[in-house]
Amino acid sequence: MIQRQKGCNDIYGREAKVWKYVDQVIDALMEKYNYNYIRTPIFEATELFHRGVGETTDIVTKESYDFEDKGGRKITLRPEGTAGVVRSFIENKMYGDPNQPVKVYYNGTMYRYERPQSGRDRELTQFGMEILGSDDPLTDAEIISAAVNLYKMLGLKEIKVNLNTLGDTESRNKYREALIEYFKPHIKDFCEDCNERLEKNPLRILDCKVDKDNEVLKKAPKTLDYLNEESRDRFEKVQEYLDIMQINYEINPNIVRGLDYYNHTVFEIEAKVEGFGSNNVIGAGGRYNGLVNQLDGPETPCVGFASGIGRIVMALELEKVKLPIVEDIDLFIMYVNEEEKKYAAYLTQELRLAGFIVETEYTGRGLKGQFKQADRLNAKFTCVLNSEDLNNNEVKIKNNKTKEEEIISLDVLIYYLDEMINAGSEDECDCGCEHDHCHCDEDCDCGCQDGKECTCGGECHCNEGKECTCGDDCHCHEGK
RNA sequence: GCGCCGUUGGUGAAGUGGUUAACACGCUAGUUUGUGGCACUAGUAUGCAUGAGUUCGAUUCUCAUACGACGCCCCA
């Protein structure tokens, strides 16, 4: 049997619906923030990543999917989204667009040649957003707020924003030297990895898991101490805007982004959920004012953010967030003989065109098996076609919830179903039982009043004055 | 790149160096129920990731490979 490639996943069934839902929420949110969707190629010239991300980093030297195509071109599967967006920004001269800054978002697969582990695959899907062409601290705050709002909208509650600044290039270099100076006398007491990190990337020592309790590390100089006045002012502005937007965050001086092009604002967003593996960062980003210029474009200040969809889905599952995913069908049409089957074919066609989710039998099951199938599909209504009824221009429709059966004239069938399904539906049962077909009488504890599934994520507290995180369909009383 | 553990049917899994690989769920058919959800009966892996080795004999032992899980490194 041919197996899938290491670190790649097939996403199907319910999980695929969750992914699709996440995508929809992203699109809806980005529309409100007025970001334009951008699609760039999955592979680019290897040089783009080498020059953009850094020649010596692990990312480029050992973790990328490099190959040569038949024309001898050096190609790399994109390991992240920003480089491609920046390349496109330059190549399409978006900096000349009168509509500045340029705000774009992407959502697609990325590739990195790594050993898979929890929350980390070789093929991953990332959503990301970028603002190119503004150095305003408000854009930093906007990116962070959009990220937080996305997670809230999806229904995630346990998230934490870690915020830091690296300052401008001058501040950053000064700080780097200070760190090396500071750690050098003590480095023998640190772990092997830290010894390697000292010259290569001293900032990462701050993030070391082995030495995190080392007193020397705790007293290490902070980035904030090495900021010049301009950088400090800038950082304060970002915080001020975040406060105004009522975005919660925590200053964490140990947040360091690995790549050279980052400066000023950097942040990571963690999912603080029980059961998450060691990779619990669901999104991260920062400012990269130097990158466009480094890739032969005009000096352009930018800020961006990226988030792994896989990790978001994992967080949604671990938090048991209730999602508005359609998992049941409106009507299952049953039949026994060929004549009825033909009518079933006709009726499914008609009703689907009328907007209903309709299924029928395809595997030759008997009536008993068809009823079972209807149950498995959570059919709201079932109907058994019967030649006699059809001759009378009628059909028997059974409400699978109330068990009531009615004989409906075919002329008014669509009207009847519309009435029953779209107006008269009830709240989903929320008793928590796992059975396909629950018979308990518990009421849904969702607070919304009109029968739609609340998207708040489990229990809707709209009536209690809590912050509403609902999407468009919620009719709770906060009026969002 | 490194480390640790794992891989048995549609699913969850038990299990053993030796003729029929437990049990449960699911599924299919039948009985019964005025057309299903209950109950009962029957069926449901020539097969234990792949390859090689040890052995009279391996799913069970050894090695290699692939894949999975978790962690390290690194993190876009």
Describe the 3D structure:
A hairpin with a 5-residue loop joins strand 3 and strand 4. The two termini are 52 Å apart. This protein has helices at residues 13-32, 46-53, 58-61, 82-91, 137-154, 169-183, 192-200, 215-218, 229-244, 291-294, 309-318, 338-353, 367-376, 387-391, 413-423; strands spanning 36-37, 43-45, 66-68, 74-77, 102-111, 123-132, 159-165, 250-251, 263-271, 281-287, 302-308, 331-334, 358-360, 381-384, 394-399, 405-409. It is α+β, with helices and mostly antiparallel strands and 480 residues long. Helix 1 runs antiparallel to helix 5 (137-154). An eight-stranded mixed β-sheet has the order 1-5-6-11-10-9-7-8, with helices on both faces. A five-stranded mixed β-sheet has the order 13-12-14-15-16, sandwiched between helices. A three-stranded antiparallel β-sheet has the order 2-4-3. It has three domains: 13-168 and 228-318, BirA Bifunctional Protein, domain 2 (2-Layer Sandwich), CATH 3.30.930; 331-423, Anticodon-binding domain (Rossmann fold, 3-Layer(aba) Sandwich), CATH 3.40.50.800; 440-480, no CATH class. The protein is built from 15 helices and 16 strands. The chain binds one RNA strand of 76 nucleotides through helix 13.
Features:
eight-stranded mixed beta sheet, alpha+beta, 15 helices, 18% strand, RNA-binding, Rossmann fold, disordered C terminus, 480 residues, 3 domains
What's the CATH architecture of the largest domain? Answer: 2-Layer Sandwich
Query: What name does the CATH topology of the largest domain carry?
Result: BirA Bifunctional Protein, domain 2
Tell me the number of strands: 16
Strand order of the largest sheet: 1-5-6-11-10-9-7-8
Tally of alpha and pi helices: 15
